[in-house]
Amino acid sequence: MLMKYQQQTLAIELLNLHAKVKIAHQATGIPVKLLRQTYRQLDGRSPSRGSIKFSTRGLTGSRRKYKDVTLFAVCYRAASNKSADNQIQTLISAFDAYKRSYP
């Protein structure tokens, strides 16, 4: 029962950060249909569709994007050095730090 609660809490946290539904599904194992419904309830609109981008070209296409990616990479490295949490929690911590330091 506790494991299910932790999965649901993680899913809600990821959806509040506007993570792709597929990422929340992979991290929690919760069905995609339920995650889509939850996203709609939380955000008031349907989640964005489309596949997860694997190319770095879109991330580094401009100077501004390159600076953003570099800042996030620094936040992720700091979060992973500080914590022995699992990878998804480290990612959430890094994203929170990135949002706090975003100019």
TrEMBL record:
Organism's domain of life? Bacteria
One Pfam family, short name: FlhC
User: Per UniProt, which keywords does this protein have?
Assistant: Activator, Bacterial flagellum biogenesis, Cytoplasm, DNA-binding, Metal-binding, Transcription, Transcription regulation, Zinc
An annotated GO BP: regulation of bacterial-type flagellum assembly
- Kindly list the GO molecular function terms attached to this UniProt entry: DNA binding; metal ion binding
| The name this protein goes by in its record | Uncharacterized protein
